[in-house]
Amino acid sequence: MKIGADRVAITAIGFAVAIACSASTTDEGWVVTSFQSDITLSSDSTLTVKEDISVDFGSQLKHGIFRTIPLRYRFDDAHDRYFDLSVQSVTDGIRQVRYSDYVDHDNEVIKIGEPQIQVSGAQRYVITYKVVGAMNSFADHDELFWNVDGALWPAAKSKVEATVHLPSSAFLKGACYQGAPGSTETCTYSGAGTTASYASTRRLPPGEQMSVVTGITRGAVAVPPPC
């Protein structure tokens, strides 16, 4: 059983348009040097997401970063998808880093950093969280659409990469899009069996993002209906 690239593309574009109004074009002058997302899909369709984010503040003094993740996406004319997201940990790769999180206008906001401490130069933030409700089911396949990095960063991203791990050899087809929300500009992907990998092909300025689609065998995971 195969799904066509056109079907995958239509689904991804539809989701991306849903958050177009949230994009930011503010540039504070620092840079995200690397954004790597490792996404593990369980058999009950729960996602475990580990984001390894390297930034360079240069000579600027910052308390840390904000990571903003949309929790609501349009599924069709009658339904939306609402994600249930729970933060598991935030570290610098070795030690725990202080954070707080809250929901603001259908976005999960993770505020990272010590309020009494300012940092500059190269910094690393590793965020792990779980997501329930992100999978979608269609007549001929199940599908994960994932907005990897988001368009709300007030800084350019030099490189964005993502790897999706599946619970079985269920990979059918993938797609990757980069640019402003709703963009049809493609980025690179490869996939087979239990793994799919995606990567941006250029620097992404503020207001741009990378979104990925992973189509899998229908029934490989349990997919709850949209709201």
In short:
With 227 residues, the protein is mainly beta. The chain is built from one helix and 17 strands.
CATH topology description? Immunoglobulin-like
What's the mean pLDDT score?
A: 89
Q: Spell out the CATH superfamily.
A: tricorn interacting facor f3 domain
Report the strand count: 17
CATH class: Mainly Beta
Question: Globular, elongated, flat, extended or rod-shaped: what is the shape?
Answer: globular
Structurally, how many domains make up the residues? 1
Helix residue percentage: under 10%
Name the beta content range. Answer: over 45%
The separation of the N and C termini measures: 28 Å
List the uncertain runs.
Answer: 1-21
General description of the model:
The protein is mainly beta. It has a single domain, classed as tricorn interacting facor f3 domain (Immunoglobulin-like), CATH 2.60.40. It has 1 helix and 17 strands. A hairpin with a 2-residue loop joins strand 7 and strand 8 (107-113). The longest helix is centred in the N-terminal third of the chain and has 14 residues, at 5-18. It is globular, with a radius of gyration of 17 Å. Mean pLDDT is 89; it is low at 1-21.
Indicate the topology.
Blueprint: H1 5-18, E1 31-41, E2 47-56, E3 64-70, E4 72-74, E5 80-82, E6 84-91, E7 99-104, E8 107-113, E9 122-132, E10 135-137, E11 142-147, E12 156-157, E13 160-165, E14 171-179, E15 188-192, E16 195-199, E17 209-216
